[in-house]
Amino acid sequence: MTEAASQNPVHAAALRRMTPEDRDWVVDRHGALYSDLFGWGEDFRAVVAAICDEFLLRPDSEDERGWIAEIAGRPAGCIAMCRRSDEEAQLRLLIVDESARGRGVGRLLVERCVGHARRRGYKRMVLWTNAELTGARRLYASAGFRPVEAEVVEQFGSRWVSEIWRLEF
């Protein structure tokens, strides 16, 4: 079942549950974007693939969930909510395809993920991001997340600022 994001066909997006069949699209989109932006290669793709495999191979659970946003029946973005503890969920795998940016897809995905975490009774959500992803950071801030930790790291063949953001419910 899908849910329309808007009645305006220019902005229309629908959300559906992420399935194992979505794995390759999720890995490919992350790999392509982060390769273009930061030159990250197979090491990063392997991390995304491992996250997908871990998440998608778990038994179906209301405490964890992934969504794919579709526009005109084609994947346009994704997000996942993963359980870290009884009190904490993690927002993971957010990406919006370049062709769908500026159409509210990212906001729709984040709102659904955060709303689901609240309904499941988590007390907070955390996420990990790159400080250079200014659009994503604005989206996270508008959803109530705040940066709580930043660290310069050398990972995936480059030096960058890793950030942890938190949202208390």
UniProtKB/TrEMBL annotation:
Keyword Transferase set for record: yes
GO MF annotation terms: N-acetyltransferase activity
UniProt-listed CDD domains: NAT_SF (cd04301)
Sorted UniProt keywords: Transferase
UniProt-listed InterPro entries: Acyl_CoA_acyltransferase (IPR016181), GNAT_dom (IPR000182), NAT_camello-type (IPR050769)
Stretches assigned to the N-acetyltransferase domain: 13-168
Descriptive protein name: GNAT family N-acetyltransferase
UniProt source species: Croceibacterium soli
